[in-house]
């Protein structure tokens, strides 16, 4: 089946260009990007680069509403939003030239480690003909990725914005014998404490790291997938009634809180973060959107956009994106330990108060 060209996606300004860029990385990743230039661009002009990194379950398409406004800001920018490795239309060269294959759970995790993704981003900068980035913006999982990019290549990125997820820095690598075990005993201890609650719970990252998460979400075909994605975005947005703010005692504790206190606080979070132990994410979304929305507004807003997400993820699956969570909970590859040790404890270089920004909006749009 032929894949419709991205330029035919709905709600894309005619000024947004879709193309693939070949990266100088181990598998010559063909990275799909959406990009925009200032109005009435002179081909001889070079504009400062802005890079936009999406999260999960998102795509370069998630930035469609801001690409052109950012390009026209100030004296003009070249604004680029890539499909990160494992998402959308970014595929290794061998797949681009042959029959594309979906990422599978048993595939090697190394290419999805956050430092490997940071290398993809750095290679993209070079492939676009730049030596520096005026502004790097990360949303959701793209936010910690942006932090790793800046710490690993501090001379490349001139400013950074973290959206929806603050960047806490890089911890020293904790290496264990089994790649199937979490990378710290704290993760294990919290998982056990959550499972012992009444009712028992689990953290969403632990669920996303399981072999069945991808097939759970994809079960039922593209129509069911459209319902899931619509419900997922609705639940994580400002209009879902279950998104209430709470003060967490563990967050303001003067000393390290106990594992039980951490688990009790985590259990207050919405179920898309801390799930019932025996439910899938699809179960959580279906039950909550049914209970909280008789009019189902999440199916009435931006239906065309939901169709794009459903079509793309139905084609590629979610495993590429889910591997990011698996890497976050697993010991690092042996060839990353030294680099992580060198980066651990480093802080973002701030020449002035305008260089680093964190944003957490009360409403999220697709």
Brief rundown of the structure:
This protein has 366 residues and is an alpha/beta fold. The protein is built from 13 helices and nine strands. The chain has a seven-stranded mixed beta sheet with strand order 1-2-4-3-5-6-9. Strands 7-8 form a two-stranded antiparallel ribbon.
Question: What would you note in describing this structure?
Answer:
The two termini are 27 Å apart. The protein has 366 residues and is of the alpha/beta class. It is globular, with a radius of gyration of 20 Å. It has helices spanning 64-71, 93-97, 114-127, 142-152, 185-195, 204-208, 213-218, 221-235, 259-266, 281-292, 303-316, 319-329, 337-343, and strands at residues 17-22, 30-36, 49-53, 78-82, 135-139, 160-163, 201-203, 274-276, 356-359. Helix 4 links the parallel strand 5 (135-139) and strand 6. The longest helix is centred in the middle third of the chain and has 15 residues, at 221-235. It comes from Hygrophoropsis aurantiaca. Keywords: Hydrolase.
Task: Give the secondary structure arrangement, pairings included.
Layout (H helix, E strand, L loop, with lengths): L16 E6 L7 E7 L12 E5 L10 H8 L6 E5 L10 H5 L16 H14 L7 E5 L2 H11 L7 E4 L21 H11 L5 E3 H5 L4 H6 L2 H15 L23 H8 L7 E3 L4 H12 L10 H14 L2 H11 L7 H7 L12 E4 L7
Parallel strand pairs: 3-4, 3-5, 5-6, 6-9
Antiparallel strand pairs: 1-2, 2-4, 7-8
